[in-house]
Design brief:
globular; alpha/beta; 2 domains
């Protein structure tokens, strides 16, 4: 009997990438110790799982890329906050908790190195983090449960666009073309440049080289939040667009794009990319289609959904499904400046929602797709993530926020594995791993029903797909909420002021170095004298609420 196939999907998360990273950390630890228990002859279910793909957008895409590298190495799992600045050897933790913070994003090293202003924030630190986190792995890691052809798909927003003709007529007009800005890039372990489904891939050979350098740039591109972070230039193979297998499943009708005769198959093209979440913030469909096309291919492209027949599933790590509820109050038409933030909020929320999947997520027979979302079991009415404030940028304000969310991710993942990710013992894949166990041992390995429904047939029980063994069995402790000292917020306010001054002066400087430029820069400096760190902290504090201490 083959292995149960998993694809892990990671939607956008902004600073809550720390939560996604924590979920991944525990998931890898749990499978590692379970594999060790099986190898040691312990009385545990012995079926197999195989991680076949990672898909991700924005911060989720960055986590996907780091995980694809991290799985090649043995690494420590972070069970408590590490000291500031310490390198732990865990690429996920070092990137998302130790590496990125608002003070470094508010520096001006980018302006010193370039005459151009390309983003509101200084992205120099992101280049440094990517260079360290996404450098080629130093070893194989020996994880048999990771597919030798692991696929990684990241969504992108290609501002150059891909133009498709709508008609076959030789006459051309604007009405006869569609421009598609949603894009994706696909990597795969190994030397091959074509996946098993015929799709073109960027190869990630075990010895390094290949497309490993491109992976770092692609990860920065999928996370390039528009305006705030710098857009990224990627050089792509034209065949990735002209091939019929450009789609995830390789099943789209062949409609080659029209590059106006400038780009032909076999050549390359340069693309300008921003945050993949802008056009596809939840690439569930990419993960689903890839699984459906793995051998044995599923009937009609539909993955089996019942607990006794499922043999593959998409596991989504979704930090922000939503915490809002329907409002009973409605005041009618809203003034212009009230509509703008509501429109932005609606677009962001909609990009996180797979409406066509709602019925399958809610049905009791939906065992081909699962979601891990933040839950604070100690304060169920509170917002679980400390990173959720300030439009989900709040996590960048304090390492303590990110540490909290990382450990919450580990805790939520542990509960999910032991409560929800379970299948019937008569599922052929699960049953094959129980043959060496006695009835009593099978009962000991079982878990309560993950759903309410009809009683199971006699002798059938629920078995977790990833049984908790060894270190994964000890309860992950509840992470205490972090309260940011007000003085730290004042320091951030000072940094905001300095960055605003640098950005405005850079914009003014684009007009030259004459008397007018000098005058405008002087006006900006005088105007900012009235805005100091304390005042900015006062503006930010209400949004952070109880997460920031009182002003002294």
């Amino acid at each position: 009997m083959g292995a149960f196939k998993l694809a892990i999907n990671m939607p956008g998360a902004i600073s809550a990438g720390a939560y996604t990273a924590g979920v991944l950390d525990f998931l890898i630890e749990a499978i590692d110790v379970w594999e060790a228990a099986k190898a040691g002859g312990e009385a545990v279910p012995a079926h197999s799982v195989s991680i076949e793909a990672f898909t991700g957008a924005s911060a989720g895409g960055m986590c996907s890329a780091i995980a694809a590298v991290q799985l090649k190495e043995l690494f420590p799992h972070i069970t408590a906050a590490a000291a500031e600045g310490v390198t732990t050897g865990n690429r996920l933790y070092d990137s998302w908790v130790q590496g990125v913070n608002i003070l470094r994003l508010l520096e001006a090293r980018d302006l010193a190195a370039s005459a151009q202003l390309v983003s509101a924030l200084d992205c120099t630190v992101l280049d440094e983090i990517a260079a360290e986190a996404l450098k080629p792995p130093t070893s194989d890691g020996g994880r048999a449960y990771v597919s030798s052809t692991l696929t990684l798909m990241l969504t992108l927003t290609n501002l150059r666009g891909t133009y498709y003709p709508l008609y076959s007529s030789d006459s051309k007009s604007a009405e006869q073309y569609a421009c598609y800005f949603g894009d994706r890039i696909r990597f795969q372990y190994g030397e091959a440049t074509t996946g098993a489904d015929g799709a073109l891939v960027e190869p990630l050979p075990a010895a390094g080289g290949g497309s490993w350098p491109l992976l770092g740039q692609a990860a920065l591109a999928t996370g390039a939040f528009p305006v705030a972070l710098a857009p990224r230039v990627l050089t792509r193979e034209a065949n990735e667009y002209t091939s019929a297998a450009w789609s995830a499943a390789g099943s789209m009708t062949s409609i080659p794009p029209d590059f106006n005769g400038l780009i032909v198959p076999g050549s390359t093209l340069t693309t300008l990319n921003v945050d993949g979440g802008t056009t596809d913030n939840d690439p569930f469909a990419l993960a689903h289609d890839l699984l459906a096309n793995l051998e044995p291919k599923t009937a009609g492209g539909v993955n089996p959904r019942q607990a006794d027949t499922a043999d593959r599933a998409v596991l989504s790590i979704a930090p922000f499904p939503t915490t809002e509820t329907f409002s009973n109050s409605y005041s009618g038409p809203t003034p212009l400046f009230g509509v703008i933030p509501r429109v932005i909020g609606a677009l962001i929320a909609q990009s996180r929602f797979q409406g066509e999947s709602l019925d399958l997520l809610m049905t009791q027979d939906g065992f081909s797709r699962f979601v891990i979302a933040p839950k604070d079991d100690q304060n169920p009415t509170a917002t679980a993530l400390e990173s959720s404030t300030l439009g989900a940028f709040g996590g960048f304000f304090a390492k303590g926020f990110r540490d909290h969310d990382y450990q919450l991710g580990r805790r939520n993942c542990q509960r999910f594995l032991n409560t929800y990710l379970a299948f019937r013992s008569d599922n052929p894949i699960i049953a094959a791993g129980l043959e060496h166990l006695s009835a009593a041992q099978i009962t000991a390995a079982s878990v309560p029903p993950p759903i309410a429904g009809e009683p199971l047939p006699e002798g059938v029980c629920w078995i977790p797909l990833v049984p908790l063994c060894g270190s994964a069995r000890a309860e992950v402790q509840y992470p205490q909420l972090y309260v940011m000292p007000y003085a730290d917020l004042v320091a951030i306010g000072d940094a905001v002021r300095s960055r605003v001054k640098a950005v405005v002066n850079a914009l003014i400087g684009l007009g030259g170095n004459g008397v007018r430029t000098w005058f405008l820069k002087t006006v900006v400096s005088v105007a900012l004298l009235a805005v100091n760190g304390k005042k900015i902290a006062g503006w930010l504090a209400p949004a952070l609420g109880k997460q920031v201490g009182p002003a002294s």
